[in-house]
Amino acid sequence: MRTEWAALAREVSSCRACAELALTRQRVVVGDPGPGWATALPDGDPGSGVSNSSGGSGDGPDPGSAAGQGLAAGRGVAAGPGSALGQGSAGWPATRLVFVGEAPGAQEDAAGRPFVGKAGQLLDQLLTDSGMARAEVGVVNVIKCRPPGNRRPSGDEIARCRPYLERQLELLRPRLIVALGLTAVAWFLGRRTTLAAARGVVHEVDGYRVIATYHPSAAIRFGPAGAPMAALREDLDFAARYPRRSLHMRLSTVDDTWAFGRRLASVLRAGDLVILSGPLGAGKTALAQGIGAGLGIAGEVTSPTFVIARVHRGGRVPLVHADAYRLGTVADPRAEVDDLDLDASLEESVTLVEWGEGMVEQLSEAYLEIRIDRHDDDSREVALVPHAGDWSTRLAPLC
Ligand code: SF4
């Protein structure tokens, strides 16, 4: 993939499809693919820009080239037995988020990198405030060359550059795209959309999940107390918390479910909260028993339905196994959960809560959600959904 990104960057860097932009730009701003990918860029240039004097065919994206193939290839991820979803291809780090802006401004044009001017500095600050780092995210633009005078890109320019962004997204495989400003939002949602209507929803577009928010330059224009700044902050906070893509696997038998629980235990540690959901008979208890065995707990881990919570000791970490099934029928299940005092033992134990969805998430900002579904052929589909923390890194060896 690094090679493909580098090839695409070289192709974009020599593009002269938009005659006016090719004449007036200093550099083509390909974009930042994300962490650890600088080596993927042409000639090791961190911005991957080239001077305006560089050559080029003048033909724009070639229909036969990687970019010209557009969305046709590589979109989506196949879910096969035992396969992992949502990870980059081998050796290709999964990009947490991809931000899509409109076009390079004057400073970006000079530097050959996206979002390095005032708007970029604000974006960096807001990312930091939301607990993210610029180096962790991908940043690209709808068009790669600066429109003179910072005018809006024309529809033709956007259309000519479209295959490049399509191909970039295919390579980056973002789990969430943040469209910054109306041009980027319209690129995904159509020209009739408005920012006000598009905000506040996760849109499914061609298999991507997209949220819409203000461009940082709008936040600067309206000032620190303006509505765009507040909205941008809110949306970046949402993006920071947005779960990484789930990992899916198909398990053929109950024994496989137990064995997977045992393997999962190898990455669990004190302080972990695991929320287990799935219909009756899906295999939740088998998974819990496998986890117990993997933690080295000697006695059998049985369903705590009647006692609601049980503590198993004797392994390398205590396992608190709770069953919130009966709490789902009470008037205030969260108050009942509070009464269980699960937070008292959370730090020193692995806390596993069956039927806990919607009731125990407040116990920890970072938790692992596991959903098990049972198919007609008696196989189980297990989805691991990390919420914050370092779950994705820890789960990677299991996939
Ligand atoms: S904006 Fe895109 S399509 Fe137009 S010249 Fe630049 S790279 Fe080529």
SSE order: HHEHHEHEHHEEHHEHEHEEHHEEEH
What count of domains describes the coordinates? 2
Strand content range: 15-25%
Largest sheet: 7 strands, mixed
Q: Which structural class do you get from the secondary structure elements? A: alpha/beta
Total strand segments? 12
Q: Mean pLDDT, as a whole number?
A: 81
Regions with pLDDT < 50 over 5+ consecutive residues? 39-59, 68-94
The Rg value, from CA coordinates, equals 24 Å
Helical fraction? 25-40%
What's the arrangement of strands in the largest beta sheet? 6-12-11-7-10-9-8
CATH architectural type of the largest domain:
3-Layer(aba) Sandwich
Number of alpha- plus pi-helical segments: 14
Termini gap: 20 Å
The CATH homologous superfamily of the largest domain corresponds to: Uracil-DNA glycosylase-like domain
What is the CATH class of the largest domain? Alpha Beta
What do we call the CATH topology of the largest domain? Answer: Uracil-DNA Glycosylase, subunit E
What ligand species are in this complex? iron/sulfur cluster
The outline comes out as elongated
Structure explained in plain terms:
By secondary structure, the protein is an alpha/beta fold. The protein is 33% helix and 15% strand. The protein has a 7-stranded mixed beta sheet with strand order 6-12-11-7-10-9-8. Strands 2-1-3-5-4 form a 5-stranded mixed beta sheet, with helices on both faces. The site of iron/sulfur cluster (SF4) has 16 residues, from helix 2 and helix 5. Iron/sulfur cluster (SF4) binds next to helix 2 and helix 5.
